[in-house]
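Just scan my protein:

. . .
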Amino acid sequence: MRFCYVIRTLSPYYYFIVKRLPLKSVLVQSLHSRELFAGWIEESKARVQEHQAREHHLPSGPEPQQGSGRRRRTVTKMSTMKSERSPPPAVFTASQRLHTNIAMHRLDISDREHLVSSVPIRPDDGFRSSEVTFSRRVPDWLWAILTAVLGIDTDRSPCRLTVAIAMRFLTVFSALVFACSGLVFKVFDVISSDTKTTMFDAIGDAILGAYWVGIGIYARKLAARLFSNTLFVECIQMHSKTIFKMNTAVIIVVLSITVVSTNLYSNRNILDWETPEVQDEDRHQEGTCVTAGVNVALCEVYFIARAVYSGFNLLWNLLVSTILLSVCRTHTICIRRFMRELLYDNKIYEEFVMLQAITSQIMSPNEENSTQRDRPKTMAAILESKGWDNSIHELGEVKDEGLPDNAGILQTMRNIRRSTYDLSNPGTASPPTAPSAAPTAPITLSPSSLPLPTTALTTPGLSNNHEDGDTRSTRHNSSVSFEPPSTNQEAPVDERTLSRQYNTILSSLGADETLFRQALEDGNPPIMSTEDLLFKFFQLVRRLSSTSRLLQRWMSSVISIVLLWCALYILYWTGNSVTWLGLLTFALPLVMLYLLTSAYAEVNFEAGRIIKCVLPTPERMDSLDHMQNQPPELKVFSFTISYNAITTVVAGVAVSFATSIILEQVMR
């Protein structure tokens, strides 16, 4: 009986609201006129009361004439009220309706009360602060020393010119003395019958010595050239790649000093002035002055020149390697900042689509079609399918110097979207209050000119109760519900107040009102344009190309001399036993080469990730094809250094070393 009574009571509502009134148009129009919707509700209640009174108190049979007159008067009154009211303006144009339908198709909002991400927002966007923050520049005192040693800006100070000339003269003079004395010593060493030095060994040592002399002189010239380049100096910072939390430049300095010191220590026997007592089958591989048959003074000059030139060579090459590591680190940070800007660009697009979807859901909450039924049922499933870099930390809470330029746009879009959601759901936000101060340049807006519902505009302070983008009341609900406002709610807000609230939102965030209003009206998200994307990408390509052109000759020389050094050691171990000192001298240059090339590989690896961070849109398809075919890379004479190439070289050297050990054991 109770169930029948409920059905009987609700039947007039169903008859009047569903059969007589277009529910969809009523809900859409009510967003712009609460007074009109409240009038329809009052008329509906009056009609229901009249129907109940007639059903319970009047006898059955033909309806009395008074009732018919009352009905006619009521219908006439309601028709007069409808004719007096002007129809509300259109909510969306055809173009805007198309954009909102696309937004509804992209995001699942049919079974969600809110469109805020249900995935917990992580504290960052995948990049640590140290990965996108530049270090301090070269100190003034260090810069003064470097310019004086390299001979930069010598016109301002004659003392700098004197120091630069002296350093250049000592470098070249020690290199010439080392080359000449070493060549004479090797000739006598090969001719002598008391040593095992062959012509092949002498040629290998001569090539290695020529590389050593040439790379030292060229490194000094290259360092002066790099510090004289204004654009290149801007990239030099007090930072470099880190290995196990240690600065790579410091590691290379320590390893270089260790290798040079070990090599000088292992060749100290050339100064022996006593003739060693050896047999024919057991002669020294490295001859001395006595066994080679040369004067001891020549050997002393050769050893001293070798030590002096090794110091200068070490100085200039370490200076260039430090510059290389610093510049590569700067390029890596620039690439990561660009990727971070692209990630924020993607998030801006997502916030814009969410805002459009919220607006479309509010405008037509009961509109369903086949495409909506085929969409996923949860927003979390969509967000989880977008990738790991979906969440970006709350802007304004963390002060990060590495924030991109479009961080303010993302903050504005997020606040507008939250404000829209708060006022469209009265249970999740407090009633709107008038702003304390009007904006400096208020703009009068009509409800039809705003793509956002006017009831969804509020001051930014209303969304401060969000911790991570979600409200407590919306985390446990999954259905969209819209209840028309009752008569006991507060009075509707007029258009002037709503326009003032809309201006307050944009002006309080420091955003360009015209930009956001035009973007929201046209349905175009305020993301990076294709021209800006290609221009920034082209800047990275040119910077890496210039760096490759300046450093490729020195880098190729370093790779060649290290590989030649290791090859000579492997050949030496085919006929001699392996010592710990020789093994250390063999391995340390390979480690230094790995550290230098890994700086190149890191830049190329990060540059390869750029295209994966670009939001693919129909307008960007040609740009993505260009970015795929012309990636920014650091090259050495058209050869791209990557982690795969480094691994291949290391594996080849390891196989060669193992082969030499096996041959030594077999020959024994």
User: Anything to note?
Assistant: The longest strand covers residues 242-243. DSSP finds 22 helices and four strands in the chain. Residues 140-341+533-667 form one domain. The chain has three domains: 2-84, 140-341+533-667, 342-470+492-528.
